[in-house]
Amino acid sequence: VCIGDTMATLHLGQVLSFDGSPFDEGHDAVWHERRGALAVEGDRILAVGPADAMRAAHPAAEVIDHGDGLIVPGFVDAHAHYPQTGMIASWGKRLIDWLNHYTFPEEMRFADPAHARAVAGRYLDLLLDHGTTSVCTYCTIHPASVDAIFEAAEARGMRVFAGKTCMDRDTAPEGLRDSAQSAYDDSKALLERWHGTGRASYVITPRFSPTSTVAQLEALGALWGEHPDCLMQTHLSEQVDEIAWVKSLYPSARDYLDTYEAHGLLGAGGLYGHAIHLEPRERDRLREVGASLIHCPTSNTFIGSGLFDMGGLTREGQIVGLATDTGGGSSFSMLRTMAAAYEIGQLRHRPLHASELLWLATQGSARALHVDDRIGNLAAGMEADFIVLDLASTPAIAQRVAQAGDIWEALFPTIMMGDDRAVTSTWVAGRKR
Ligand code: GUN
Ligand code: ZN
Q: Where is the Aminodeoxyfutalosine deaminase/Imidazolonepropionase-like composite domain (predicted)?
């Protein structure tokens, strides 16, 4: 169809892409080609198909042969805290003590814009090494921490979602508090500077109800009402102690979700991190409005939060994304995150299939972020964010894969045992990073 497209590049390898969600349609939702090809022109995918047909259709294209490598969409991490890069894997605390002990002191360091720039660049490079091409991240209360991550993303061509974390209650420490007004003003200024600039998306970001006053939740709810095309991210029902704390701070709220709902912070563009210990009313409202629930499995086990109900929530039609929650999460890797999601699924008697895990880490998270028509899949017209996986990246994985009967048996050992060594190359908007 595109004879003479001299600018096109043809990537040869195994190719996996989605025609639908494996949660709805099983493995039929997945297209796998042993000798496949991905045609890329500029920053877009031109076509996907069997290698022979693609070579015939694009005779002038430059060819890059990835051999047995598996070409899949770049991973999409739907919830992370880039400022916590330096304190990942901090020992021995549960949520509230963990925040006070490790997180808040680390986030104070971002008062220095040079520090924010250094961590933002290091963080995005770590993501690319691990095959993650898009992330939705919290920043700190400091506006410069938002500039730092968007500038670092722009330099790497990455589609990144980020927002200034807002905290104005005295539950947050001195030095890490804004006010209702400054949170509104700073968020609005950052939104106007960054939202829709290149691949940047601004996300309105009240950290969670325990660190905001009602006045701040209302101000951010109003800002969201003025910019409904922005996403809004926060935390919801992560630990039992946290829920009791919310009840004590908001005595008239019907439940945790109501602290957001009552202040304009519940909607289709809402991203609710963790969402583990939900009441029936909360589940009903989240589903009714089409909100996104973000599963953070390595964090949930690492901080001891609980077991996300993937089976029940997907069955009732909730929108679910997958995320590392770095640095409450113990990894930068979406492979490791898929493995943890599998293990939590086992504890809840809902073993997730490799196709479901890969979908969650790509299309599922992209859908949760409302960009599944742009990223998270390999299809004509989509942005060319993809990775090449080596399905035999270590001797331990290779000896297991030698006995694999099909693509799922070949992929699952890499999901369970793989790390950044499994990511042969990462391509962002058509360019190798
Ligand atoms: N709840 C509020 N802030 C945080 C955070 O930084 N990490 C996690 N895991 N939970 C939170
Ligand atoms: Zn979080």
A: 36-61
Residue nearest to atom 7 of ligand 1 (CA): 328
pLDDT at 2 over 70: no
**What's the pLDDT at 6?**
56
CA of 320 to the centre of ligand 1 (A): 18
Q: Tell me, yes or no, whether 264 lies in a domain.
A: yes
Top mutation candidate among 106, 237, 238, 298 for ligand 1, by most atoms within 8 Å of CB:
238
pLDDT of residue 7: 83
Residue 129 lies in a domain: yes
Whole-number Å distance, alpha carbon 328 to ligand 1 midpoint, is 7
Q: Residue 28: pLDDT band by 50, 70, 90 thresholds?
A: confident
Q: Are 391 and 410 in contact (CB under 8 A)?
A: yes
Over pLDDT 90: what percentage of the chain?
98
Q: Which numbered ligand comes closest to the C-alpha of 330? A: 1
Give the pairing of strands 270-274 and 231-236: parallel
ipTM above 0.90, yes or no: yes
Is 123 among the domain residues? yes
Q: How far, in Å, from the CA of 87 to the mean position of ligand 2? A: 14
| CA gap 432, 429 in Å, rounded | 9
Kindly state whether residues 24 and 124 are assigned to the same domain: no
Number of independent structural domains in the chain: 2
**Domain harbouring 418, CATH code:** 2.30.40.10
Q: In angstroms, what is the span from residue 250 Cα to ligand 1's centroid?
A: 19
Mean pLDDT of all residues in 28-42 = 97
Task: Note down the domain range covering 93.
Answer: 75-368
> Which residue puts its alpha carbon closest to atom 3 of ligand 1?
207
